[in-house]
Every structure is written in C-alpha cells, then in structure tokens.
Fold these 4 entries.
Entry 1:
Amino acid sequence: MCDDPDVNDRPSPSLGEALRVWVYVALNSFGGPAGQIAVMHRELVERRRWVAEKRFLHALNFSMLLPGPEAHQLAVYIGWLLHGVRGGLVAGTLFVLPGVVAIMALSILYAGFQDTTFVQALFYGIKPAVIAVVGVATTALARRALGGRLTAAIALGAFVAIFFFEILFPLVIAAAALLGLVAHRFGGTAIATDPAAPANGSRRPALRGSLAVLVVGLGLWLGPVAILLAALGPTDILTQLGGFFAGAAVVTFGGAYAVLTFVGQQAVEAYGWLTASQMLDGLGMAESTPGPLIMVVQFVGFMAAFGQPDGLQPMAAGFVAGMLVSWVTFVPSFLWIFLGAPYAELLREKRQLTAALNAITAAVVGVIANLALWFALQTLFAVTGEVRVGPLRLPTVDAASLDPIALALVVAAWSALVRLRWPLLLTLAASAGLGFVAYLATAG
C-alpha cells in the first residue's frame, strides 16, 4: 500500500514494525480524541514519516465526517493505508485493546468496592500532562494546516461556533466545506490545493468488493444483537444494550463528546441504567486511561447489566454487557473505513474537492482546540458552569476551585515536552508519579 509518494518519504514499514508502533500509540493515547490524534501525528507523521502531512489530514477529514469515534477511525484508516485490511485490523484492534482491558478492570473494581481513591490518585497526575500534550499538538497542527488568513478564519469560526454557540458539528463541517468550494471557485489560491502534488492514481473500487465488505461488516456488527434478540427477547438487558449502542454508532456524529452527550442523557435519564454521578465517574476513568474516550460506554454497559443481571451473576452479566457494548460501538469503525476509504482516496485527485477538504482541515483545528479547552477547564477547576445570553453560551469557572497542583503539573509537563524534549511516555509517567503522591497527601 505504500508505493504512493504521498504516503511516506521513508521506506515502507513492515507489518511487524507497524504493529510495534501501534502498540506504543495505543498505550500512550490519553486525553480523548484530541490527545489520541496528537499521538498518532507525532509518531506516524513527525517521527517516522510513514505518512505525509497532507495524507494524514485527508484521512482525519474523512474520519471526522463519520459517526462514532473519529480517533479510532483515523487509526483504522492509517493502518489500512499502510498495509491494507490487515493493517487496518491491527491498528484498530490495538488502538482500543488497552482501553478495553483498563476500563473493564476499573469497572469490576468500582462495582465491587465503590471506592476509587487509589485509582483517582493513580491518574490524578495524568490529566494535567494530557492538557500539555494536547496543547503542544494543537499548536503544531495549526502551524501546518493554517496556511493563510482564510483557513485561520475558518478555524477560529469553527471554534467559536462549537464552543460558544454549540452549533452541531456536521453543520460546522458542511459550512467549512462550502467555504472551501467557494474560495476555490472565486478566490483562486485562497485555499491551497497543492497543484504540484502528483495524483495518487487510485482505482475506483469494484462494486462487488464493496458489497462484500458491507455484507461481512454488517454481519459481524449486528449478528450478536440479532442472536440475543432471538434467544433472550427484546426486554432482556443485554438485548436492550446491544440494540441501543448499535443504533448510537449510526446516529452520533460530531466526535466522542457528541457521542457521550447523547449516551449520557439516554443512559441516565431515559433508561435509568446508572446515575449521573456514576456516569461522571466512568467518564473520569475513560479520560485517565489509554484508548478512546468513548470507551466509557463499556462502563455504562457493565453497570447497567450489573444492576439488572437478569438471572446471571452480577459480575458476569456486567462483563458480558461491557464486551457486547464495546463490540457494537467499535466494529462499525472498521466497516466505515474499509467501505469508504477507497472512495475517499479518489477525492484527492479532485482539485475542487481537495479545496473543500482543506477547509475542513482548518475547521478541525478549531474543533480540536475546543476539545482541548473543554478538557482543560474540567481538569483545572473543580467547579464549572455556564451563562446563557440568547444563543450564546459563556462557560464559567469558580476561580477559587482552581487546582494549583494540577496547574503546576501542566506547566511542568509542557516544559518537559517543549524545552527538555522528554519522550511522551516519560512525561506521562513523571506527571503520574508526582500526581499520585500529591493526591494522597492532600486527601489524607
């Protein structure tokens, strides 16, 4: 897959080399989608140059347009780009595996003991380090993706639209794409399309192959839900969880936080599977462990079945439900990419469509900045809120609730990454150790 000069400028990695890197990426993917995208960019584009900047951003643009966890879909896309279906399976599976293991272990601990003090202490120092990681990555991405005033304005507009007005993500992306098309039509070089870049020569995928991917993908994704429905009926908790989260995988556009908003409201208010406090605890676990932030759905499934085991032992019911929810949440990512990525590659040869995607890239910078700021506010301040002025949403914080230790750890992690050039893993480990000691000392 790597014979395209726009894929990489180094010799193609073997699948074994890629596997080791995907393990590293998975174990260091903290901080939600912004942090995970940052880690992939750093390892695959900057350090190893296996994927060119424009190719990475093109894959990110496409992933952001899909329902579900965009960072996971990006990993599958890049894995597919490097080594075909095998590479996509390896990258996508390894990307979620640490999170599956970590959240399952923490769910069992939480349900069994309802005491997460040790766990909170363990991850207390990781969150501030993640803020630094995301900040460094967002700055680097902005330097590369914002090549002029128009792209900078699109990025700023996307940030303002989402952060202050809560405009739906698909509308923001659609507006950016439209601006890109208009700019290319009337503005000439306002949105650069890199006319000197060679066409990638991608062939249009065969319809027969696409249909085969669709049939196999749908069978793997929805097969377990159909079996549960036939065996247990529609009222069983496992059937309900499988059906709900399979549906959520289709309707939740806008990235991990949009998914979490929908899932949180439905799981707490509509179904009563867990309390709002438990939902926040689960979100804290997902933010503090490697893997996609949306992995919190595994915790939701675990707690729902643990509380309504329907004849099973509660822990066993929770385990089965957690794995089921993870399956129906992440399998669609493979389907969307294996089905759509070959067609997305064809778009790179269309100059006007490239302009639209470049505008989307600029909007993505604003989206990631929004996620980064949201995460920073939630981490640094114990009390946050908002003030509404018409359609305008103004986030507020209680200055007295600022966590000075967390702020100091952010500054220290930033210095370690930018000035001292520490490796990411060392930075996270050092911050986690300092945070662990500080949390236990202040808690005591």
Note: Residues 1-5, 195-201 have pLDDT under 50 and may be disordered.
Entry 2:
Amino acid sequence: MAKLQTIIFDVEHGFCGYLQCPNGYSLMVDCGGRSDFSPAKYLKSNTNYYFPIKHDYYHLTKLLITHPHGDHVEDVENLLNELPPAILTRTYLSDFSPEDMQQRKREKDDENLKIYREKLDQKYTSFVTNFPNWGITKNYFSLTPREAKQVDKNKILNNTSKVLLVEFAGRKILFTGDLETAGWDALITKNPNNFVEKIKGIDVFVVPHHGHKSAFSQNLFNIMGKPHINIISKESEEKETSDVGSVDSRYSHQDYSQGITFDDNSLRRSLTTRSDGSIFIDIDDSSNLNIRLLDLGSNISL
C-alpha cells in the first residue's frame, strides 16, 4: 500500500519536518535540531526504512528552508555531513538586505546561518533540470522580501516564510514557517484565487511561528476550515500574558479543529512537540490518516 509518511520532529523551539513520498523521494522542511538530537542523524540511521530511492546520487531529495532564522537551520552541519540534499528551495540570502538579517541577532544564529550561507545557500545555485516524480501534489506560496517589508518592516524574515501545501489521496497538509498574521493577510490578497482555492479543506495544519499569538490568522481559518488536527513545534510553556511568546489557545478549541480520536479514546484537537514528542503522520492511498507520538530520545552525546 502506497503512503505518504511525515514526521514533525521534537527540536524544541525550532522546526524540522520530513516527508517520504509514496514512491520513495524525500523532502525535509527546515533543518532545526536540539543540542542532544539531530533529525539528520536519526534519518541516516534509518536508511532501510526512509531512503529507498536516490535522486542524482543523493539520499535526501530536497531541502526546503522556509525562512533564514537560526532555529530553522540549527542542524545544518549534521545535515551536510549526513544527508546533503540534491535540491535546495529557499529565498536566497542575497535577496535580503543586511538590515533585514539583523532583525533577530543571536550568536548561535550567526554561527548556524554562516554555515548555511557558505555551504548551502551559496553552493546550490544551479537551476534544477532533473525533477523527481514525487507522487504527491506540492504547491509553494510566499511573499518576496520587498512585499514582506511593506507588510511589516520589523517582521520581514518571518513574513517571507515559504508556505508548503502537500496533497495526497485527498488529504492536505499545510506547512507554514513563521508567517505572521499580517503576512497571512497579504498572502491571501496576493493570491486571491490560486492560494485561496487550494488551501480549502486542510487536514493537518502545522501552525505558524510555533503557535505564537502573533501568527494566528482568523482569515486563514475562514478559508481553510477546521483541520482535523493542529500541530505545534514548541519548546516549553510560556506565560500567557505575552501576545508574542505564548501559544494561542484557539488551536485547541473546537471552533478551530475537528479533533482526532486516539487509541485511548481521547479526542485531541492539537498536538505539540513540547509534550507529545515527535509526531509521525501516515496517509495511505485509501485516504486513511494515522498519527503516532514517539519520544525519540537523544542521539548526540553532550
């Protein structure tokens, strides 16, 4: 039975998602990691299960970088050592001004982004001519840095996040990067037909900006409807007094999620890597949706 296999890894505050397509091609969405866990090392150690086919001699077919923030490329060095991609999709760093790149400056971000810039962004510059037959439908949507600056000059990087819509067997998964509320409104306005029509009926919503209130979009939910489940990549519980740092409780409300019943008969409307660990999502060619929660432990010695 053909199926689409998806993993949302527990990488604390960052993000790393992985898809293995029904015909074996693979796609990683961002390459976040933890100090004690590398998604790239985990996938490399499961080659018999995860990489049945190569593309241009590479095990990992494509890496999508939604936007250039350090927590979304934290595992970049392990990725390059273990699973360099055949194809890289991103907004080029050269499209951002130096001022844009200083919006969130941390020493660790600088180190990760330097490796990303030199060994991925500046290296993968050739046009792709050999495209894999994914066996799924993929669509990308995003604002340019110039468009994002017009929306909010203080949130340019977040609002250039590349949104990925994946469809298989009548099911839809939406990956959203760190797109903010105003960014969603601009994206909807920019693509009133193409984007709006395609995102109706989302089944699995990987929520934007780690569930922060600053990224919740009522207009988006009005279009896509209630997903079966909302998935949040988040490190730890934060004070609910902050509109920026806290997880928006609406993602767990019945108005914003249909919910999924698990084997213990519990109905869950949202899942978070903070408390649920890594989240495995399987969709088979009969449109069955199965979700498993696993603690993958550590694979890096501290």
Note: The first strand starts at residue 3 and ends at 8.
Entry 3:
Amino acid sequence: MSFDRLVEAHHKLTYSNSVAMVAQQMRNPLRAAVTTKPCTGEAHAASDLLGTGEYVIGEDRTRRNTENPLQRSRRWLVRPQEIKSGQYIDEEDKFDMAMDPTSDLLRAHTVMVERGVADTILGIRPSGGTFEVTESGVLGRAVSGKRKETTSDLPAAQYEPAASTGLTLAKLRAVKKKLRKAEFGMETDDPFYAAITPEQEDDLLAIVVATGASLNAFSIEQLRSGKPTSLMGFEWIMTNRLPVDSSGNRLIPVWAKSNIVLGVWKDVYGKMWNDGSAEEAPVIKVGARVDCVRVQDEGVRVIRCVES
C-alpha cells in the first residue's frame, strides 16, 4: 500500500544534501588509501606505464642524438555499472525519515553504496556469504594496453606463501623488502596500506604481547587502545570483507597509495522523485559510479594467512 506525496524541489534538494552529508561523515578509510581521479566518458587513462630503464653514457664529440626509448603501455579506468540502493516510500514516517540525515533509513542506503565503493577499491564482490576477487581494484583484474585490449589478474609472483599461521613479523618484513626493491616508496616516501580482518588484528596484538617487558612506543599504544597502529611503515585498514583463496587462506593486500587510482564518474549521491508508473509513489535512491585500477602490479603484494 502506498500513499501519495508530491516530491517537490526542496524535498529533492534536502534528500540530496542529506546523502552527501552522511557519505562525508562515514569517512570510508579506503578512500584515504588511494589516489582519486575525476573521470568522464567510456574510459579514462589511469596512467601511462613506462618500462624500466637506465641512463646511458654519451660519447665525446658525437653528432648522434641520444636514443634510449622506453616500452610504453597504459592502464585504464573503464566506466562501470552503477552501484545503487533505494526503495519506494509508502508511509508518511518513512518520507520524513528520508529527509533526516540522522535517520536509520537514509544512513542504511548510503552505507550500502559506500560499502560498494570500498569493495570496488579492494576489487571484490559478495558471493554467497563470502567474497570473491573480481574486476578492478587492488586485488582484481586490470585493463591495460593502448586500446584497452588486455585484461590481467594480479600475477602469482605478487602473492606471499602462507607458510606459518597468521600475520607475522617475518611476512611483513618480506613484503616491505619486496616493495622497496621494486622501488615503491623509495623516492617519494609513498605510504603503504594493508587491509586486515579481526583475525590479523589479533595477530598484531599478539606481537605486542610477545615483546614482554621490552615495551616500545608501538607496544604501549596497542595496549592502551587495543588497536594496531602503524608498524614498519604500514597503515592498517580493518574490514570483514576480505576473500580467501582456494585453500582457505585469507588474502591480505598491501599496496602503495599512489599505485591505486580510484576513478570517479559520479560520487555518492542521492535522488528522490515520484514514480508515475506506481501511482506516483515517492522513490528514494542512493548511487555512485566509480572504477579502480592498479597502476603497476609490482606495487601490490598479497599475504596469504592461515587463520586459527
């Protein structure tokens, strides 16, 4: 059963502003861990990829021009399908809630869309109660080539073996060294981020306990707050939405911020109207249209973790 309520211009503006306010208040932590780029059209170049090279030593009195070409390719952000949520408004109370930025109704739809943005950044999608790696993002497939002709998974060489149980200092040291040897964070002091679940948070707190009496600043802060702070140059982002591999190992991505580009065609927005095909019932919608891609595969490492 629906009720008739004319959605006027001020209702549309209020709803749109309320959604924008809630989206800003949520502060999706993954947004701070990527580089954002406005996009238009069907596709947008995330970056030109230049192959590695070295300088050459010139010859004295030579009249030949220097020829030291680099291999070139390109990574693309492709206009994606829209992430969206919404519903019909069939009660006066719900209509009033849609206008209120503090209401559970408005926040619920905004949270679901912002969660979709976070999944796009990670390169995952929900699948039957778990999560799987899909197109785009940190973990997903990347589109490259001069004409978007190549789609590639993150290479197997970028994955660390599970080896021992949990997230250990040895694994973090190995990942940090490999990222440095690939020259990420060497010349620009680019920050590193890692997405972890509560299981890996507990592993990090266990590292603190294992230090015993020799407490350092890192350990003291862990015991005070119960949260992992920066360690070995990694900033931690908590989530319950990380996938597992075919062996059941949790996949923990680690990346350099400048190496992950979030393309924004339309950021989280709200829209409200009357549906003429449904007896003029009011409709609310929250949507976003974003894509995400790795600039270089070498700037992402994935730690496989056996969970207890």
Note: The first strand starts at residue 35 and ends at 38.
Entry 4:
Amino acid sequence: MAQPKPRWLRYLPVSLRNRIEHRSNLQAILSNTGWLFADKALRMGVGLFVGVWVARYLGPEQFGLWNFAIAFAGIFGAFATLGLDGIVVRNLVKNPERQHELLGTAFTLKLMGAVIALLLALIAIVLTHTGEQLTLWLVALSAVGFIFQSVNVIDFYFQAKVQSKFTVYAANTAFILITIVKLVLLVSAAPLIAFAWAGLGEVALTSLFLLLAYKMNHHNFREWCYDSSVARELLKESWPLIFASVAVSVYMRIDQVMLGAMLGQGEVGLYSVALRLSEVWYVIPGVIVGSVTPAISNAHTYSYDLYKLRLQQLFNNLVKIAYLVAIPMTFLANWLIHLLYGESYSNAGAILAVHIWSAVFVFLGVACTPWTINEKTMKISLYQTMLGASINILLNFYLIPRYGGVGAAVATALSQCFCVWISNYFFKVNRPLFWMQTNSILLGLVNVKK
C-alpha cells in the first residue's frame, strides 16, 4: 500500500515537486528535518522572549545564580547520556527486531548513569558551597532532570524510524505548558526557586508525553527488557564518547562555574545573557550540515577531489554566514543588550561583542562532521575536545580575575580557535582539513592550498 504524500509537497514549485514527489525516502528525511527545524525555531523565538523577561525580573544576581546551578549540574550530565544516543539509533535502524532489548537496556544504563550524575553533582555542590541552601536546591533540581531524561530513549526509536515529529510534539507541548507557567510566575512575582521547579517540570512533562507518543504508536514500554550482553556491547562502543561528552560538558559549562566561583553570581548573570544571544545562532550550522552530509559522504565513495570540493564549499559558506552574524553583532552588542535586558545588564554588551566570534569556530567545528565520519577521526576529535577544554580552563584562571566575563569570552574564543582549527595542523590525517578551513577563514583571498 502506497504511503500518502505529505501535504507540504503541494506548496513547492512544480519543478522541485516533480523531482521529489516519487522519492518517499527523501520526503521522509525532509519532513523529519522540517519538524526538527520548526522545534528549534519555536524554542528560539518564544524561549528568547520569555528568557529575556525572566532575566529582567530576576536581575543579574539571581539570574546568575540559577545559570550557575544549571551549568554546575550540566558538567556531570555526560554520565547520564553515556554517549549512547547515536549508537542506539544506528542499532535500531539495522536491527529493528531488537527494539525492546535495545531500548530497555539503553534506558537502564541511562537511568544508572543519571543516578550517578545526580549523586556526583550533589556531593560536589555540598563540598564546594557548604551552607548555601538555595544553591544546593537549584543544583539538585537541575540534576534530578537527568532521571527523567532516561525516558528519552524513546526519541532514539523515533529517530530510527525518521519520525521525529512525535518527539517534537512531546517536547513542544511540555515547552508551551511550562512557558505559560513561567508567565504566571512572572506576573505573580514568584521566587527564584519556583522557576527552577518549572524547569524540572518541563523535563518531566516531556518524558511523560514521549511515553504517551510511544503508546499511541502501538508500543508498550513494559515490553522493554534489560540484556547484560547488549549492555556490554553498547558500552564497548560508547566509552570514548563518554569521555568526549565529559570534555564537551566541561567545555560548555566551565566558564559560568568559574565565573561564579571567582567573581560571584552577578557576573554569571551578565555572562549568561550574552551567551544566550551568542549561542542562539548555533542552530544554523547544524541544519545546514545535516542536509549536505549525505551528498558529501556519497562523493567520498567515488571521487576524493569532489569530496574535498564539497567540503571546501561547506566551510566557505558557513564561515561567510558566521561573519555576517559576528560583524554586525560586534557593533550592535551594547545597544541590543540594553534594548532587551535593560540597564542592569549593560556590562554584558562587551562580553557579547567578544563571545560572538566563537561562532566562526563553532560553525567550522560543526562543518567538520562529514570529515570526522568519513575519515574515521573520532579519537582525534576526542583529543582535540579534551585539549580545548584544558586550554579553556587555564585561560579562565588567568583572564577571569583580570577581565571578568570578557576574559571568559576571550578564553572561549581562543580555545575554540585552537581546538577546531589550529590543532588540525598537528595531526597528519587532519592537515588537509586545516588548509581547507584556513582558506575559508581568509575568504579565499589568499590561496593556501596544500
């Protein structure tokens, strides 16, 4: 029985519609990508609006404390994911008949990892912030979310079936409901801890709605089963990714944690609002790279020259987009911060003007995904991430006491630069990647092809 054609096809130009209306696999991929992009767009728009309101309401000190707690708990979040995501999805695609044992085993492993992450976060915050009850509660509420996220193995099933719309339904329903709750909290002048409970509520509701979506697709999570041999099989593959995830967690969170420890939560609040306006652009490379990776990988199988040409084009286009974001934001940072967040956050403008340049290297880093997959350089990527995290920490120790949030932004930009770009020169297999990235950074004005 033929599958019904998606409704969005009718809105495409005739020439484009004729090219894809008989390609059901491509239609499924495009629909799946569209749902994921819609999810990100909704969260970017509504999330930014409500986030600005919450930040203005709480003020730099309390907003900083909340973000410090989220960052502190997030450092331990890698132990809750265990690097299983892509591995489980791949196995579900290859072996759909093993659905129950794969999902059951992955759920059990992630639940155990979540408990470990929660305990580590609680022990660490008690040892480092003795007697600070509010901080303890905020970290605890953030870390408890790891437990609920264990249910997100259901998302692996929907990814394997190219049906991410169900995950989007679940996540966005929870997001909208909790957004309404946050608006009520704002109007009723609720305390900070209430917003933390709302954040946990969103994670819990997302898990509940995923379970409902799974059941509506005629599946029962009670049929899941744990298999120790499957667990060993999964962990044998995922252990390098666990270390990579830990490095990434440190990389992404350590700035806020170190700022809070060295200069107090007010500086974390300033840094956090700048971070949100800087990182809101990071969805762009993910969408673009996800759409072109199959074409680049196909080229790798029959023409290395075409493969490198397509990679170079990807680098060139993403760097140009990054420049188009970073240059205007550098000059508009102070005005934008004052417009959105008000006078109390005015010092965040300088932080944003520096941090936005990390986008150039973030975009380049995401663009390396096809190279990492096709050249099988996952271990090198792990080494680079760990090296970048180490450089970031060392630079933070030197720059934060002297320049505050601006110093942390400089540390992030420089460590990203070294990790994503310069370090490729020192790995022989990645040296062609270094020259391609250099050409794109120089916009082709100087040809440094090697």
Note: The radius of gyration is 22 Å.
